[in-house]
TrEMBL record:
It comes from Rhizobium grahamii CCGE 502. Keywords: Membrane, Transmembrane, Transmembrane helix. The chain crosses the membrane at residues 20-49, 61-82, 109-135, 147-163, 169-185, 316-335, 355-379, 391-411, 417-444, 465-488. Pfam families: TctA (PF01970). This is DUF112 domain-containing protein. It comes from the Bacteria. Signal peptide: none annotated. Residues 20-438 form the DUF112 domain.
Length: 505
């Protein structure tokens, strides 16, 4: 079957009434949490993991993807009106968007962000649909050593792409590896690191770790910071609609942002924030009036917001085809797949085409829903910013606890939830990223299994791991993945920091 036929079948799946409802719930929740500062899509998906484990897999994954897209949309509202990015990828939007809001042009800033996100999401989702089958064909020839090299690439990716320090990323990853070793060894049947506790023989639940570190840890971290004073929300003055001049200055930036964001999101060492930094730098270099940057240039909102949403679709390319998560939300979605016994990768396209193509097609529908929801309901999203933080985070703690009890009613599991929550708080306090620990727990056993198979086939010859051209190529890419994020971040952030310094002057 051709890509068009698969995509058409996926649209039929996505258009089922229950799946449409899941998509609507996802994009609404995603937008709401994107608007709320400090709560991102990763935290929301983590909270919903234990609640949705008995639901239909296709519907739940469609809802998670809707939350991801919605979170990208909602983050722009907080950046523009509050000058507080809800996600790291929305930092650049705050530079120009908040200046526009202060000048009474918050409406056009929100409009160009919403329409640019729609355009980028539409193009990037189609790119995902047409690129994914080619990557799957390549991955179907993988053996144990190729899969092990792919796992190494995933580990390097999450260590270098998350946070500012590769060493801290590796430390977080090895915490995940240690937790992955808890339980019964699948090949020998021996108990490992269970310390005689029967509850640990089944290993550490991914959902418990994800909820604890993302939800409990974030709540404790915010509570420890105390009250930092009132945050001023800029009122949306005048019309929400863009003028002809705004359209003329925005449409090229939308397309350029899409072309920058999608491939960077699809790269194993990608990430949405890198694309937004580069898009901002590109728009500033190409602008006819570069002196407007720092004072409310609409291109500085249009380009980065398009890059932001294009990166979100790009992130799903390595996740669905190879099982590689390149963002925190993608790592939690990977846990969501495994919750239903599904492993993202080439076999997912072969064994569960309805689920994967329904998920891809649902992104097109979610994108249209978001455009309809965002601008007419801007007043509602702004009101969410007035929710007192003690109420908000108390609700998160309650929801996380009830969700864990519902999935696994055990006092020991609640103790683990609290323990991992404190660990997540300590890691945040000292600047250690959370996502690598979750990825280490998910992919660690798979990497161990493939390594053992490869060494068993070669009768213990370690050199077999580099004798395959594909495996050697993946290991070379893994080595490069340490360097590429540093170069891209330094290049993109250098432009942004110079702009911030110029603004202060």
């Amino acid at each position: 079957m051709s890509t068009f036929e698969f995509l058409f079948q996926g649209i039929l799946v996505a258009m089922q009434p229950m799946n449409l409802l899941y998509a609507l719930v996802g994009v609404t929740l995603g937008t709401a949490v994107g608007v709320l500062p400090g709560i991102g899509p990763a935290l929301t998906v983590a909270l919903l993991l234990p609640v949705t484990y008995k639901l239909d897999p296709a519907g739940s994954l469609i809802m998670f993807a809707g939350i991801y897209y919605g979170g990208m949309y909602g983050g722009s509202t907080t950046s523009i009106l509050l000058n507080t990015p809800g996600e790291s990828a929305s930092i650049v939007t705050a530079l120009e968007g908040n200046k526009m809001a202060r000048a009474g042009r918050g409406g056009p800033a929100l409009a160009t962000a919403a329409i640019g996100s729609f355009v980028a999401g539409l193009i990037a989702t189609l790119g995902l649909a047409f690129i994914a089958p080619y990557i799957v064909k390549l991955a179907l020839v993988f053996g144990p050593r190729e899969y092990f090299a792919l796992m190494v690439l995933a580990f390097v990716t999450v260590s270098s792409a998350f946070g500012d320090s590769a060493l801290r990323g590796l430390t977080s990853l090895f915490i995940g590896f240690a937790l992955a070793m808890v339980g019964i060894d699948q090949q020998t049947g021996q108990a490992r690191l269970s310390f005689g506790i029967p509850d640990l023989l089944d290993g550490v639940e991914v959902t418990t770790l994800a909820v604890a570190m993302f939800a409990i840890g974030e709540t404790l971290y915010i509570a420890a910071q105390g009250n930092r004073g009132e945050e001023k929300v800029e009122a949306v003055k005048g019309s929400l609609w863009m003028t002809a001049q705004d359209w003329g200055r925005s449409w090229k930036a939308w397309l350029r942002g899409t072309l920058i964001g999608f491939p960077i999101g699809a790269m194993p060492a990608g990430g949405a924030e890198i694309g937004t930094f580069l898009s901002y730098a590109t728009e500033k270099r190409l602008a006819k009036n570069p002196e407007e940057f720092g004072h409310g240039a609409i291109e500085g909102v249009a380009g980065p917001e398009a890059a932001n949403n294009a990166s979100a679709a790009g992130t799903l390319v390595p996740l669905l085809t190879l099982g590689l998560p390149t963002t925190a939300t993608a790592a939690i979605m990977l846990a969501g797949f495994q919750q239903y016994g599904l492993q993202p990768g080439p076999l997912l396209f072969a064994n569960n085409p309805q689920i994967v193509w329904g998920l891809i097609a649902s992104l097109l529908i979610a994108n249209a829903m978001l455009l309809v929801l965002n601008l007419p309901l801007i007043g509602l999203w702004v009101r969410l910013l007035t929710i007192p933080k003690p109420w908000l985070y108390a609700g998160i703690l309650l929801f996380a606890t009830l969700g864990t009890i519902g999935a696994n009613p055990s006092v020991f599991e609640l103790g683990m939830l609290l323990g991992f929550g404190v660990l997540g708080y300590i890691m945040r306090l000292f600047g250690y990223p959370i996502a690598p620990a979750v990825v280490g727990l998910i992919l660690g056993p798979l990497a161990e299994q493939q390594l053992r198979r490869a060494l068993a086939i070669s009768q213990g010859d370690v050199t077999t791991l580099v004798m395959s051209p594909i495996a050697a190529g993946l290991l070379i890419v893994a080595a490069a993945a340490f360097i590429i994020p540093l170069i891209l971040r330094l290049r993109g952030r250098g432009e942004v920091l110079s702009q911030l310094a110029a603004n202060e002057d």
